[in-house]
Design a protein that fits this description.
- The chain is of the alpha+beta class.
- The chain has one domain.
- The protein has 3 helices and 14 strands.
- Strands 1, 2, 3, 4, 7, 8, 9, 10, 11 and 14 form a 10-stranded antiparallel sheet that branches.
- Strand 5 and strand 6 form a beta hairpin.
- The longest helix is centred in the first third of the chain and has 20 residues.
Length: about 260
Amino acid sequence: MSALNAANGATTLVISLALVVAASACAEDEKPPSSLTASSSSTTGGGGDGGGSSGTGGSSSTSGTAGGGGILAADVACTGDYAFRAVGMSFTPPTAEALAAAFNEFTFAGEEHPITIVLRAADPSQASIGASPSVYNTETYMDSFVPGLEPVFSPADAIIKQGSFATGSAQPSGYLSIRHQQGMLDLALNNLIFHAGTSGDCNQAFVTLDAIIPSSEKSKPFVTSDGATTVGDLGGGDPNNDLQLRAIFLTEAIDFDFSTL
């Protein structure tokens, strides 16, 4: 299937990018896949540099490269308010193979922005993360979360380290927006867990997302190059069971209207 070929190519390229971008991330932040268990339970745009209380800001420290060997030094710690917009996305196991292939057909291109991660870390000891699709406002010249798709932020225990950030406790709920051949899939997610390695003074991040697709989302339609189907048909298994999802993606820092939160 063409979709499966796309999934394989997507995963290979994005994982290669991960080796470069995430090299400075702290390895101890990573959590094993077993930390997630399934339980029963748009519009994009905009660009720019990362946010402050009403738009731009964050750490002013500068990172660089280590001496002689040219090894990348760890990035600064992202202390401040930031917004990171996904630039494409690739779905990998434990996402069901057919579901990953179908999503990858539409999300791998860099012009697709399925999610924006907002990091509130002005006080690193009380940092929290909220992620959902965002939309660009032509009046404020900043992004904000799509109305009706706002996330529930994680508890204030996010982990902020030099060159990385991660959820402590999971973000309770949020959304992905995936454009397909006959519209947009706004997919609700539960128990979102993020691990990110940053670079360029917190202007970029390479992110791993683990989450749960609740069974209530299985009836949503999705149209691929192979025809019309549903999230549940692609995900397989018992119709009453939730689905696991994992995505890896690059992000860019954007201007975000934090006053809307």
